[in-house]
Write a structure and sequence with these properties.
Largest interface: A-B, 33 and 32 residues
Strand order of the largest sheet of chain A: 1-3-2
Structural class of chain A: alpha+beta
Strand content of chain A: 15-25%
Shape of chain A: elongated
Oligomer: homodimer
Number of strands of chain A: 3
DNA sequence: AAATATACATAAGTTTTTTATGTATTGGTG
DNA sequence: CACCAATACATAAAAAACTTATGTATATTT
């Protein structure tokens, strides 16, 4: 579990992508799924997740369905239409960002004096 | 210039990687180089850069050389030995993080009933 | 019976970055 | 040559995004 600094800007992307792939999920399920998929490398804390889910709801990107499990209430979240397109955008932006970072970390070779482009 | 959310955890990585590739650079030069390399997609603001450079220095990851350019003083930063290994670590961590993110965005196919692994 | 896992939630504090300002020199252009 | 844009540094207030800590309660496993 060491991808902390980096995770900062990507929590929203991670959560929405999971919802895009799974129709409906509840908070705790999301934390477990992320742990499972990443072999424990990415761990979402509850203090970060729940406020985010509430914000996504306030922004109309997810809808809620409450389901009683025994005496407990579980809140299932699913993407709205708006949420679906946002999720797609976020994933695209992430891919683009990674490609952009690669330009810095692994810059294309400059054409020098000996390498005429014909 | 749209990679803002994502840039959050990567500023340190970007700056140190540039210093790793260039021996010595000054602040303004870093902002311009990043713009150039990324075709304007990543823009480092001065309000973020200068405090970071000062922190890197305080942490002993970079050393400073002041050079007078006319009446102006330019501050060249170079990585210390410690800084070099940190830079390398950061880049590795970023690569690892991207690989981990891929597990979520582009998860490996689950082996199902019809796909016995022999 | 006790410990662990499930399941939600919020609040205080930290870190990181944006936005806004400030100062000053240098180079180019009408 | 006056003015604007670019060069070059810097800091401070505010916002944003998380972490850490804490709280509550039910369900399951040992």
């Amino acid at each position: 579990m060491y991808s902390k600094e980096l995770l900062k800007g990507t929590l929203r992307t991670v959560v929405m992508e999971l919802l895009a792939r799974n129709e409906k999920m509840y908070g705790y399920e999301i934390t477990q799924k992320v742990k499972e998929l990443t072999n424990g490398k990415i761990v979402i804390t509850e203090g970060a997740l729940y406020p985010l889910l509430h914000k996504l709801e306030a922004d109309g990107l997810v809808s809620i369905e409450k389901v009683a499990i025994g005496k407990r209430i579980r809140k299932y979240y699913s993407l709205t239409d708006n949420g679906s397109s946002t999720a797609q955008q976020l994933v695209e932006e992430f891919a683009d960002f990674v490609a952009t970072m690669k330009l810095i970390i692994d810059p294309p070779a400059q054409p020098g004096y000996g390498t005429a482009i014909v």
